[in-house]
Write a structure and sequence with these properties.
Length: about 400
């Protein structure tokens, strides 16, 4: 079986994705019983099938992709309008709709001098990535807390104040926001980021007695490069049904994306020409909390909500800002905020089988396949409409709501 999976992976690497999908679909349905596979083989098969389906959807071969997904037990997937993208369309004219109801974009958010400094702080070879352990693939998620009442000593802190002011000037009530949490990402243009919620990561693993899902008031993404796939934001919360609306935002330098802090979001993998660019998708994420949060114990980079070192020399890799730059703020008018590209019905129902898809029999196999084939946690394809709620809202909590 491992030899056959190796052949499937080789065919995919060579660009023969539909042939690879046909082979793995045959393996799953006819030739082999997943109950007899080792856990490592099942994991490998699930990842190969999942990534094949994702690629096939993105290049428009949706029929074989959907057949493969049904075989894996999936009942929903992100719609073609979300997964099949080329280049970002012009930003839409701002409507009278409240900025709190969707995803909104502000071009040229930071003063040019501050943006250039921030881009240098997070350049692909900058000390930040090494000093925080980001380059280690096994390193845990980490973030930093910044009290908004404190003066800005670094480029990152100055940028946070600018982002807060940008939100204030577009009508958001920032009067109750006390603290910002921030982190940065550096990924290849072809990489994806799973669908997830921004939340208080310090409460994860604390046990059912202390667990309570808590989100920031607002989430923002500042793009520091132009390459990679779009951010997708869905109006789906941890306790709601699958979203009926979504928004897409493509990376553009010095562009700020803002959306409600309890909305599901992620990154769609880049497609040509993004895949051929070879660049890095670099972002600074800043979320604004109304809750009274305090830094967690531990070294910077060791986990969520850490404090930065007190000594200015230890913060030097974040870029020192002088008094002139500290209060720099571009004059922003509310009309400069634009709506991100809107997508209606961002989930596709895979349970409506017709014609050739039904004759291939994945529906009969679905119930048997689901428990044996672990799937990557990207959540672009779901086993059930409740899958995301079940991850973030444990059953005991949802019953209490």
């Amino acid at each position: 079986m491992d030899g056959l999976l190796g052949a499937v992976e080789q065919l995919a690497d060579q660009g023969s994705h539909e042939l690879a999908a046909d082979i793995i679909l045959t393996l799953l349905l006819k030739d082999h019983n997943p109950r007899d596979w080792t856990s490592s083989t099942a994991l490998r098969a699930g990842q190969a099938a999942y990534l094949l389906a994702l690629h096939l959807v993105q290049v428009g071969s949706t029929r074989p992709a959907d057949a493969l997904l049904r075989c894996l037990g999936c009942t929903l997937r992100l719609a073609d309008a979300v997964l099949i993208h080329k280049t970002g369309p012009p930003l839409q004219t701002r409507s009278k709709q409240s900025l709190s109801l969707g995803a909104w974009v502000l071009p040229a958010a930071l003063p040019e001098g501050l943006f250039r400094q921030l881009r240098e702080v997070f350049s692909p070879e900058a000390p930040f990535w090494q000093q925080t352990g980001y380059n280690d693939p096994d390193h845990p998620f980490f973030s930093f807390l910044y009290e908004l009442g404190d003066p800005a000593h670094t480029a990152v802190e100055a940028a946070i104040h600018c982002c807060k002011e940008c939100l204030s000037r577009c009508g958001h009530d920032m009067s109750r926001v006390e603290v910002a949490e921030w982190w940065a990402h550096k990924r290849a243009a072809t990489d994806a980021h799973q669908l997830h919620f921004d939340l208080d990561e310090t409460r994860i693993g604390s046990g059912s007695a202390k667990y309570k899902l808590r989100h920031p008031a607002y989430s923002t993404v500042l793009y520091l490069s132009d390459c990679g796939g779009p951010t997708v934001v869905l109006n789906q919360t941890a306790s709601s049904a699958p979203a009926q609306d979504a928004w897409l935002c493509w990376p553009r330098e010095n562009q700020l994306l803002c959306f409600p802090g309890n909305f599901l979001h992620g990154v769609i993998p880049g497609m040509p020409p993004e895949q051929d660019a070879g660049g890095q998708r670099i972002t600074l994420v800043v979320v604004f909390w109304e809750a009274k949060l305090r830094p967690q114990p531990g070294a910077p980079g060791s986990g969520p909500m850490r404090a930065l070192p007190g000594a200015s020399s230890a913060r030097s890799f974040l870029g020192h800002v002088g008094s002139d730059e500290r209060g720099a703020q571009r004059q922003i008018h509310r009309s400069e905020w634009k709506a991100a590209q809107h997508v209606k019905r961002p989930w596709k129902d895979l349970t409506a089988e017709t014609g050739q898809e039904q004759s291939r029999g994945p529906a009969a196999a679905r119930g048997a396949m689901q428990p044996q084939i672990p799937l990557p946690p990207l959540r672009f394809f779901l086993l059930s409409p409740e899958e995301i709620s079940d991850i973030y809202q444990p059953q005991y909590q949802r019953q209490a709501l």
